[in-house]
Write a structure and sequence with these properties.
It is a single chain. This protein has twelve helices and 21 strands. Helix 5 crosses helix 6 and helix 8 packs parallel to helix 9. The protein is globular. Strand 17 and strand 18 form a beta hairpin. Strands 4, 14, 15, 16, 17, 18, 19, 20 and 21 form a nine-stranded mixed β-sheet that branches. The protein has two domains: about 170 residues, Lyase, Ornithine Decarboxylase, Chain A, domain 1 (Beta Barrel), CATH 2.40.37; about 250 residues, Alanine racemase (TIM Barrel), CATH 3.20.20. It is an alpha/beta fold and about 450 residues long. The chain binds ligand LLP. It is an enzyme of class 4 (lyase). Specifically catalyzes the decarboxylation of meso-diaminopimelate (meso-DAP) to L-lysine. Homodimer. This is Diaminopimelate decarboxylase. Pfam families: Orn_Arg_deC_N (PF02784), Orn_DAP_Arg_deC (PF00278).
Length: about 450
Amino acid sequence: MDEFTYRDGSLWCEGVPLTSVADRYGTPTYVYSASTLIDHYRRFAKAFDSISPLVCFSAKALSNIHLLRLLGREGAGIDAVSGGELHRAMVAGIDPERTVLAGVGKSSDELREAVRRNIRCINVESEAEVELLSRIAREEGVRPRLAIRVNPDVAPDQRTPARTTTGTRGGKFGVDIERAAALFERAAADEALRIEGFHIHLGSPIFDPQVYAVAMDRLLALVARLEAVGHRITTLNLGGGFPAEYIDRTAPSWDDFAEVIVHRLTGFTRQGGQVIFEPGRTIAANAGILLSTVRYLKQAGDQQLAVIDAGMTHIARAAMYDSYHFMWPVQPPAEAIPSSRDVSGLDGLTTYDVVGPICESSDYLARGRSLPVLKAGAHFAIFTAGAYGMTMTSNYNSQLRPAEVLVHGDQVSLIRRRETYADLVGLELLDDGSDQGD
Ligand code: LLP
């Protein structure tokens, strides 16, 4: 699952005790395990290797260029969703041939950039976007490859939050499946474009492999209809959505997903079709933690509160989606060393609300959480924070974004320094360095 383990009474990442990271870099700090990230990428790719997919890591989950570069060296491509992420992919040295661009509201500049770089595939989401892309393609004299993002109208089960469900009718993403064939034909008739296939992304996270099965059957029926009238479909992008382990062994394995997906696509790949995946969470979530420090303990009514130095600006998921993150002291009392992330069997725990320093009533990281007795000043880890952690941080309340640290074996490197007050106001200073305040 990951390489954050308790040893000698304290939490380690690979060969490095996290107390030493906190002492050296301060908190809150995101700490990533390179071995976990690489291992997850390799094992995901291996589960599907019989259909030789292009695995484009979804940069929206984790976008630090050092980590994108690490994945790139393993053969990963990048799923970008903005010009900013395309830029990150380029800086990280990702081949445009392994880069795809998605997004419901791409600007013409973002599309133009993707056309100029001739990336592997632009996933378009509307008729109007196809028109715009065609115009840009003519202006640039490049024939871009594109796929149509289809909304297959498939609902995941209730374990996927409504706010991260993307493939049901009426949602903002993609083109209704019954309109997709007509749009494909429109794009196929346009010699400025190279329409290659379809893209789906159903939501995140999706725990039931059958959700993919239902969506794929709808997609493959659409492919068959188009092939029956002479079109050739060469790219099918199944998006991301594969889960991570927020507790312990609660998610199906990659092999469980492969079992449902692979046999549906062997015919397609045998005829030379290219399958693309865009996993983010399943690769990155367990590869990172947010290392924080308890600032205060206080009583509020009947509740015990632990006020820590990481809030919704440093990790937004709990406040935004009521998401569950396992959290535990870095140096718990001897009787409370967890052997797994299911701590329901441990005795002597106290119930806390864990809150951050932000001036918002929603700034709770956990409510009614059983934890060992906490001490002010003690380091505290929020687990499974590698995906949608740092990428969703903000400067609200003029909080500084955390540092990011990468651990590989016993090596520690700072891969993003903590922001400073100068960073906070830097963009508000004008070119001559003045603030025009006088
Ligand atoms: N492809 C597309 C088109 C997507 O929209 C997404 C995620 C992915 C791939 C990657 O999905 P993954 O493999 O990571 O599940 N902020 C939310 C998650 C939002 C996901 C948005 N799209 C959270 O923290 O749970």
